Amino acid sequence: MSTRATAAKASVNIVTTFLARVQALADDPDALDFTFGNPHEMALPGLPAALRAQVEPRSVDWFAYQTSDRGAQEAVAAGLSAELGLAFEPDDIAMTQGAFGAISLAFALLADAGDEVVIPVPGWFCYEPILHAANLVPVRAALDTETFDLDVDAIARAITPRTRIVIVNSPANPTGRVYPKATWDALASVLDDASRTHGRRIWLLSDEPYRRIRFDGIAFASPAGSYPWTVIDYSFGKVLLAPGQRLGYLALSPLVPADERDELRAAFMPLGLAIGWGFPDAVMQYSVAALEKLSIDMAELTRKRDRMYDALTAAGYEITRPEGTFYLWGRAPGGDAQAFCDALEARGVYVMPGLLFDQPHHFRISLTATMPTIERAIPHLLDVGAEHDQDA
């Protein structure tokens, strides 16, 4: 096995091992599952309706090889322009197999073997394996340990002459934080200075799959409006709560200088082919205009967040109040997240230990579980939390 395959496997092994355990829950009707952001209820009615509307072929080439469909690019560019207040054009959009595909395309587009990529910690546990598989070097930059704000100074310290990309994630998984424009302006200044110092442009990859999942009217700002050398990855799987239907995109900030923008646009299609046909299936792309109008029920998700957050904080849990995503991120009572999660598992309640995010003192709860599941789990969470607080 190749060195990069070995490194990728090792960096994701804790996740795949945990996933195998969770998949076994499918056969247990009494399991209270709060692990991954999978659906626990039937799909949004508009999702199958949108797909059915495109299944019937309208031409002989309806199911032919499909790169980035022009209609999908136009729908995404219009939606992004309206959301972010930037003049995206269809040619700025590369349609991909979800955010996984968009991130892989960004790495192939912007970085060379051996380049360093700065990633947030705690952050998504698949950044590192994707980087290793691409022969790139992950460099961790810790978030603020108390607030989980983006620590711009920590990112500045992590940058070296080999840095090519910095990844940011807002709304952030697992913490639920949404970062304001002031943060992006400060980061833009750091990246401009570092790019000049090292004589090489540092790119920003803004990981935005939860962009439309925000609470309490909190505004969203993308760093694409603050730092021209930004690319955005997005997945429809979160807002539709359908992660098995792979649909996403990579978008160039319209502020990218024109010559570089043209060069990158021209590389989208050949690189999408070269990385293993990274384009979404034809029917998914034909459905984009309809899917752009659909969303998870934010009122119900807010109700779930408030019920779980209020119950746990009233019992003394330290929980970061999520501003976005569909997760709760908290400190494990007693400080040992694995022992805490094991005690919950003994009661049939499954949450994600922070070890998957390199945070052994924390845990994550997915709020995609049903409200009845939440109500059944709360007494167990309160009991186990009290037991572990006493043991500390």
Keywords:
seven-stranded mixed sheet, 43% helix, 2 domains, 392 residues, globular, 14 helices, single chain, alpha/beta, Aspartate Aminotransferase, domain 2, five-stranded mixed sheet, Aspartate Aminotransferase, domain 1
Question: In words, what does this structure look like?
Answer:
This is Aminotransferase. It holds the Pfam family Aminotran_1_2. The chain folds into 2 domains: 3-43 and 296-391, Alpha-Beta Complex (Aspartate Aminotransferase, domain 1), CATH 3.90.1150; 46-291, Type I PLP-dependent aspartate aminotransferase-like (Major domain) (Aspartate Aminotransferase, domain 2). 43% of the residues lie in helices and 15% in strands. The protein is built from 14 helices and 12 strands. It has helices at residues 3-23, 46-55, 70-84, 98-110, 127-133, 152-158, 181-198, 236-239, 258-274, 282-286, 288-291, 298-314, 337-345, 371-391, and strands at 32-34, 93-96, 116-121, 137-142, 163-169, 203-207, 230-235, 248-252, 318-320, 327-331, 349-353, 362-366. A 7-stranded mixed β-sheet has the order 2-8-7-6-5-3-4, with helices on both faces. Strands 1-11-12-10-9 form a 5-stranded mixed β-sheet, with helices on both faces. The longest helix has 21 residues, at 3-23. The chain is globular and about 60 Å long. The model has no long low-confidence stretch (mean pLDDT 96).
